[in-house]
Amino acid sequence: KNYNIGIVGATGMVGRTFLKILEEKNFPIDHLYLFASSKSKGEKILFRSKEYVVEELNEDSFNKPIDIALFSAGGEISKKFAPIAKSKKIVVIDNSSTWRLYDDVPLVVPEVNPEDVLKHDYIISNPNCSTIQSVVPLKPLDDAYHIKRIIFSTYQAVSGSGVGGVKDLENGLKNIPPKKYPYPIAFNCLPHIDEFTDTGYTKEELKMIYETRKILHRNDLNITATTVRVPVMYSHSVSANVEFDKDFELEELVNVLRKAKGIILMDNPKENIYPMPIIAEGTDEVYVGRIRRDFSVKSGVNLWIVADNIRKGAATNTVQIAELLIKNQF
Ligand code: 2RA
User: Fold this and answer.
1) Could you say which residues bind substrate here (predicted)?
2) What spacing in Å lies between the alpha carbon of 160 and ligand 1's midpoint?
3) How far is CA 155 from the centre of its chain?
4) Nearest CA to 214 among 93, 134, 94, 101?
5) Which of 130, 180, 225, 228 could be disulfide-bonded to 205 (CB atoms 3.0-4.6 Å)?
6) Terminal CA-to-CA distance of the chain, rounded, Å?
7) What pLDDT, in 10s, does the model give residues 205-254?
8) Is 197 labeled as ligand-binding?
9) The pLDDT of residue 32 is above 90
10) 16 has binding-site annotation
11) 96 CB under 6 A from ligand 1?
12) Is residue 330 pLDDT above 90, yes or no?
């Protein structure tokens, strides 16, 4: 069976990567419908050597015979148009944070909680990029040793902010003042991703806390997070300090990760072997290294986790959810 796929935000960085991943995975597509804002209307995009014309997104866009709509066009567009698509019985896989914490909206990382995809009521949310790459190694460790507490520190690429972030880094290297960020990101770090809330935490930090609990089905998990923008183009890096209720042998813990789906272990410090953004960029795996016991607690470990934030962190995870949908006949 082939499917009709809609892409909302087709000309954005993630939107274009949806198309690339759909081609790479040879996703069974009959018709493709590309939607974007008025400024991209009429743009031509090649897919499987066929030319598609970008249409302006409007209320009638979902009167077309679309089976699954992939959204990456910001929270406001998702808020307005996902319910319209849902009303037409189109399954939406949304990359914005809008619907992620709604009880009737599955928040899915296929390697971690694939079974949740079947609980959808026509809206499924793709988690935040830094959350996706973190829960891939944390799930097998939670199953083995029951996580008690997690401390996240992230080092996030500017592509997480879209074209604006990339431009600010490129221009910053030429001493041109930033437009997207409040300060230069070149030769700098910004402890400020998304907006600050009155709790002193940014929305990005709260996403990591609440989304991790939902995906792992562990609402009791003690988690804190500090998310930082760094002068890297592609790939987010996450330092995770994880404390367990059960004891572990380090070699056994490493083997748990070695066997886990979607993970590439890169961990041999004596040979300078560890994950880095330049390694993860352009791939779909989650790279884990610097695995070492945290001697400051009874049962704890430190991990260094790197993944391409536009692929596994957004577009690939979204298409993997779509593959789960068609495998389970929705
Ligand atoms: C960021 N994770 O990196 C957020 C949204 N992509 O800006």
Assistant:
1) 156, 229
2) 4
3) 14
4) 101
5) 225
6) 13
7) 999 999 999 999 999 999 999 999 999 999 999 999 999 999 999 999 99
8) no
9) yes
10) no
11) no
12) no
The tokens describing 322, both together, are 């779509």
Q: State residue 329's pLDDT score.
A: 84
| 207 CA: nearest ligand 1 atom | 2
pLDDT digit string, tens, across residues 43-68: 999 999 999 999 999 999 999 999 99
Q: Report the DSSP pairing between strands 3-8 and 50-53.
A: unpaired
Q: Is 98 in the pocket of ligand 1 (CB under 6 A)?
A: no
Please pick, among 129, 146, 189, 217, the residue that the annotation labels catalytic: 129
Q: Is the CB of 128 under 6 A from ligand 1?
A: yes
- Residue 227 CB less than 6 A away from ligand 1: no
Residue type, 304: W
**Considering the chain, what percentage of its residues have pLDDT values greater than 90?**
99
Which residue has the least CA distance to atom 5 on ligand 1? 160
The string of pLDDT tens digits covering residues 158-175 is: 999 999 999 999 999 999
CA atoms within a 13 Å half-sphere pointing along the CA-CB vector of 94: 31
Q: What angle do CA 255, 260, 263 make, to 5 degrees?
A: 100
Model pLDDT, residue 256: 98
Q: Is 189 a catalytic residue?
A: no
130 in ligand 1 pocket by Cβ < 6 Å?
yes
- Bridge-based pairing state of the strands 286-293 and 300-307: antiparallel
